[in-house]
Amino acid sequence: MSHELLAPEAALRLILAECTALPAENCALDDALGRVLAEAVIAPEALPPFDNSAMDGYALAGGSEPLPAGSEWLIEGEQAAGDGASRARHGAWEIMTGARVPDGLDRVIAVEQTERLDAPPRVRLKAAVAAGDNLRRAGSDVAQGVAVLAAGILLAPNHLMLLAALGVARVRVATRPRLAVLCTGRELVDAAGAALAPGQIRNSNGPHLAAALPRAGAELVHRETVGDEVEAFLAAFARARDAGARVVISTGAVSMGRYDFVPEALQQLGATAIFHKLAIRPGKPLLFARLPDGTLFFGLPGNPIAVAVGLRFFVEPALRTMLGLPHEVPWRVSLTADYAKKPRLRFHLKARVAMDAQGGLSAQVLEGQESYRIRSLTEANAWAVIPLEANTLAAGSLVEVYGPSHLHSPDFGGSHA
Known about the structure:
- The chain has helices spanning 8-17, 157-165, 205-215, 230-242, 262-268, 304-322, 375-379, and strands at residues 24-28, 41-42, 52-53, 57-60, 72-79, 92-95, 107-110, 114-117, 122-125, 135-136, 147-149, 170-174, 178-184, 188-189, 201-202, 219-226, 247-251, 272-276, 280-281, 287-290, 296-300, 331-335, 339-340, 346-355, 361-365, 382-386, 392-393, 398-402.
- The chain is an alpha/beta fold and 417 residues long.
- The strands form 8 sheets. Strands 7-4-6-5-9-8 form a 6-stranded mixed β-sheet, with no helix packed on it. Strands 16-13-17-21-20-18 form a 6-stranded mixed β-sheet, sandwiched between helices.
- Helix 3 (205-215) packs parallel to helix 6.
- The model has no long low-confidence stretch (mean pLDDT 95).
């Protein structure tokens, strides 16, 4: 394994070469929120399924001509929401919003545009009503047999509303990649309320990954914190694979320090190290390996922002391939101020993208870019990526911008309070 810094684009190609799309699976609609459609959904029925009234009023028929104001019609029947098919003979039908329009009728007049008369029960029109007025035609929203949702859509509540309305009980979705997270370091404390002994820190990487991975389309099947011993790590790795993980992510112990034991542990596992160390900041020591059984391993550095960058720019693209999605296309947004960096490294910067009064977007590089600074990450709504070869960029220069998660559209509206 070479110790030369690998270009991040080359590293990503090596990662994606190890990834294949997982087979699709059936999913009940009640469990489909946040899943990625693997196949297009074809409407099994029309929506609406029948002609129905858009308001409370009276349903009438009149051919091609409007029915004039002042005309009177005998009330022949009543139709409420949920009533079945009825056939009109003549006259008007009192009808409720959403009720099926009786066969033979072709328009509805609002109740407030009518006057009800007695002896015999009839209705007088206070306004003219033309054919088609206030009708919701069968299939006017969705025609039976058309594709309503395309493969690759991340199912949101609005999609579930449509599928439920169409009577779709199950959908074909991409199988979630099964991942495990192993946080290393004897200094880590998991219990949020526990007092810290001298030299200890709280584990922030574990909760971050546990929250972010399902949002990125994965299923987290195992999570564990281990010390700095190879044997303990190997035992935790075995538990992760027993839980069904096909991708394992570790944090920490991948650099060059005395306690950076992950490369040794991988050797004992018989893993093939595909690369170690990238020309990026933060996250330079990132390691990627493949185990003999095909399990993929991402060794992320321990600093929290290095973990966030490793997840967003190297793990999430792998998940996209496994979910059957195309490569992500970034936004290109202008910088609000000059920016200078060291050459020969690609920088991933916490940024705030906002929209101006004219609808233009611009990216502000936030203060606090060091890899240990978490607070500035909470103020960011995007990552700005400065290319490896760049040195100085002037205000107004276009840079690639990515949202916090590959599956969710970035929220670039408004200013940050």
